[in-house]
Specification:
Layout (H helix, E strand, L loop, with lengths): L2 H12 L3 H24 L9 H11 L10 H27 L24 H14 L1 H12 L4 H8 L3 H21 L2
Length: 187
């Protein structure tokens, strides 16, 4: 199915066609589950969320009647934001249960273009820093969200944001440095 077909299904679902919503979810399920599986593989060992559960949670948070997705890019951006919120909420609950024990500090000292392993990232601190980045540089925050929370590669992120891979690579490098500075300053 082409991006245009997904856009058409999004418009039909927004207009209340229930069959369109079912078709849309059938079409995007595999890609969303792949994103969730990639993301969860980089989570700490023993993580209690499974890819199917994460995708189901994403479905519950996405509402075509409330949200207006212009195209495939917007839909997957919303889905990656939902994944981010779900994982951050999950991490906050886990930290509340542990009362902060066992936090790992993020170090972005290695500025290669690979996404950091989630087990090395305090997702709550990252979420807080991403909120600040969103205010300063929204596109950079979107790149980080897609790379870290949706597990997308440079090329997949470039495709989703309709940017060149070189631009995404530059944005990714800059965003990581920005986050390292911000998160380092936060302790």
């Amino acid at each position: 199915m082409t991006p245009h077909d997904v856009t058409r299904l999004l418009a039909a679902a927004r207009d209340g066609e229930r069959n369109a919503l079912d078709q849309l979810y059938a079409v995007v399920y595999g890609e969303l589950r792949g994103m969730a599986a990639a993301r969860l593989r980089r989570e700490r060992s023993g993580h209690t969320l499974q890819p199917t559960a994460l995708v189901n949670e994403v479905y519950l948070r996405l509402d075509p009647a409330r949200d207006s997705w212009a195209n495939r890019r917007h839909f997957f951006g919303a889905a990656s934001q939902a994944m981010r919120r779900i994982l951050v909420d999950h991490a906050r609950r886990r930290l509340a249960d542990k009362r902060g024990a066992g936090l790992e500090r993020v170090t972005f000292s290695d500025l290669d273009v690979e996404a950091p392993q989630a087990s090395d990232v305090d997702v709550v601190a990252l979420d807080d820093a991403l909120k600040d980045l969103q205010n300063d540089e929204p596109r950079l925050a979107e790149v980080v969200t897609l790379r870290v929370f949706a597990g997308m590669s440079i090329e997949q992120t470039a495709d989703a944001l309709e940017l060149s891979p070189a631009t995404v690579k530059r944005d990714w490098t800059f965003a990581r440095a920005w986050l390292a500075e911000r998160m380092g300053a936060a302790g």
